[in-house]
């Protein structure tokens, strides 16, 4: 700064006079004090040279400290070959553009009053971290928005909601109808909390009455059914990778979604482990499966069939994993004559004596077999990667029981090897006392 820099005291003592005053502060900064007749207003100006031409720029600062900082900023800009006057105009334009964008966004938010708009806002605000976001969007796009998406959210009544649910029930998708009602309830509660609507149209609707009571499945495949499954699979017309998936789910107790999203980097053939990271786990708990020889063999078969260097089960473009429902649909399609009509020879190829079975039933079957083979319940819970329900145990007991888990998977694998190895003299499992 130059030697003629004003002190704070000198600045405060500046008074308007009959004539306008231009007082230097150093470094190209000047204080302009208008005459008494012009009101005596104080402003700040910055003088600089550009291509040999002297230019004056009025600053936006209101105080001397602000003016000095603004001057220093413009001096730094000028050293870069940028005209401070041009930068000032651009800065004002950017601020104006930001203000207009903010106003436009506010108007857009205020306009989001239709059910489709409400759903979009709910997705952007609350659902971005949900693992099932894509599935929620698919369900609404298929069954909700085409029916009530264009209606003002404030005008939605129970009849609109039940209309959506009844349409889903009429096509036999009772489980989907339950989930949709629960999701719509979450969305409308979100709207109430943000004063978008005054009341929740789903508030007085009972899930069990509007849809049906939820029934807890307890399907467990018998040993004879596992033998039969081994014989039926070749004629079922499944993808070879899906056959591997069936045996992997049964022998590792992993969930179908966790397996569908797995990457080859999660499988270590040397250490014989299959790692399920937090982002793939249903309960947000990382999990390591110690592979039995039976399970390892299925992963090796799957590797031989691989169509991707990244995904165990890639989508058709190899841009991500396969849809989490893909394996389930393939299995379901071989147990229902009304599905996959173009596969009439195979649409009941996987029907078993005990009734319809699902990928989750394989997980339950494997856990049950472990118990019947004498594996302790706490170890099985660890193998299932369940969250401990007992609060005291959850807080104070953190033992991982890795060796016990590995042994549990080993004995299960040996039993499955006997059941599927063509040996007709397998001794049935006796329930542990």
From TrEMBL:
This is Tyrosine-type recombinase/integrase. The lineage of its organism: Bacteria, Pseudomonadati, Pseudomonadota, Gammaproteobacteria, Methylococcales. It holds the Pfam family Phage_int_M. Residues 216-410 form the Tyr recombinase domain. Belongs to the 'phage' integrase family. InterPro entries: DNA_brk_join_enz, Integrase-like_cat_sf, Integrase_catalytic, Integrase_DNA-bd_sf, Integrase_DNA_bind_dom, Integrase_recombinase_N, Phage_int_M, Phage_Integrase. Keywords: DNA integration, DNA recombination, DNA-binding. The keyword DNA-binding applies.
